[in-house]
């Protein structure tokens, strides 16, 4: 059965925020690998890129949509907890 | 009813590289071609706690999820909005993600939990990925009478996509490894 890609309201190449998104993502990925993963977690970079990208999103994602996403986030983040104890690894010879 | 399954996969790469790869999955054109079911990914929120190195983010993901014609007729659309919430604990080297749909909720509830931790047999060099997925057709929805069939088809589709995701991850890990090796020469 062939899947036809629908014409999305924002297709990746024509999304109004895609250039700002790419700029932010590139910056984030560099910060993550080169700083955060190397123990520099004192601050996040990419503030300027983030502000521009986020402002664009607020403008183009309608309010109802955005509110729904953020509401879902509130719930899910409470399920993500940190623990210094790792879960016990089931003993098998998979690897 | 609920259909659920668990998967485990070992990446023979260090945790830092694997989690970096996870963030880059939807980036370049080749990856986008492979993961063609992912239409849009947007970061909505992020928060870094500098006291403990905990990064929390939320992303909005639009997925193309066509079903068979009889499902499309009932549901009326083949795009689904999802939310992905992530926690990265840099200090303890653990990453957790929860993804779930927030549209089509009157028909279906899908939730996927993913964890990346250093592999206990080789914590410095390997990463263990554990994933749990649950799919539930809402009992009183218009799809309820074919719940088992639809859930099974969804599970098959997700497993297929999961395979593509691993392919992309391995590709990115190899690229990052080459980059790191090149730099150290």
For this entry, give a set of tags.
heterodimer; A: 95 residues; mainly alpha; 0% strand; flat; disordered N terminus; disordered C terminus; B: 185 residues; alpha+beta; 7-stranded antiparallel sheet; 4 helices; elongated
Which secondary structure elements does this structure contain, and how are they paired or packed?
The complex is a heterodimer of chains A (95) and B (185).
Chain A: H1 18-34, H2 47-60, H3 63-79
Chain B: E1 2-11, H1 15-24, H2 29-34, E2 38-49, E3 54-64, H3 69-75, E4 79-89, E5 94-101, E6 108-119, E7 122-137, H4 147-184
Antiparallel strand pairs in B: 1-7, 2-3, 3-4, 4-5, 5-6, 6-7
Structure commentary:
Chain B: InterPro entries: PRELI/MSF1_dom, Slowmo/Ups. The complex is a heterodimer of chains A (95) and B (185). Chain A is flat, with a radius of gyration of 19 Å. The two termini of chain A are 36 Å apart. With 95 residues, chain A is an all-alpha fold. A seven-stranded antiparallel β-sheet of chain B has the order 1-7-6-5-4-3-2. Chain B has 185 residues and is of the alpha+beta class. Chains A and B meet through helix 1, helix 2 and helix 3 of A and helix 1, strand 2, strand 3, strand 4 and strand 5 of B.
